[in-house]
Amino acid sequence: MTHDSLPPVVEQYFVQMDGDDKLGVADLFAPGAYVIDNGTTYRGDGEIRGWLSGEASEFTTTSRRLMSESAGSSVMVVLRVEGDFPGGVVDLTIDFLLDSAERIRGLTITA
Predict the structure, then answer these.
(1) CA separation (Å) from 40 to 22, 47, 48?
(2) Are 33 and 104 in contact (CB under 8 A)?
């Protein structure tokens, strides 16, 4: 199990996603960024904000990091998520692609 030190923007992503104001996460994304979640792609600020206020906020969850790895501008984190969604527990792989300013350029979430 690897627990690399995560870049500050990735740590901030998790802090804000676990908080009450998920829309603030949108400020961590670079212009023109994308999110792929549950097979759907969200591009740009408006669609990412829609994802944050919709699908990303649909259920009450808690999470803990199982593993993380960083290589250059890519960061991969595996989370165990528990909550009031169907099934109640899932391990998610979250792949971040960061830009040179350490903002999120791409985010892919897979189960």
Answers:
(1) 19, 11, 11
(2) yes
pTM as predicted: 0.90
- The pair of structure tokens assigned to 94 is 């979250």
Q: What is the pLDDT of residue 62?
A: 85
Token pair, residue 80, equals: 């165990």
Asked if residue 65 has pLDDT above 80, the reply is yes
Residue span of the structural domain in which 44 resides: 8-110
**What is the CATH number for 39?**
3.10.450.50
Interatomic CA distance for residues 71 and 80, integer angstroms: 22
SS3 (DSSP) at 54: coil
**Per the structure, how many domains does the chain have?**
1
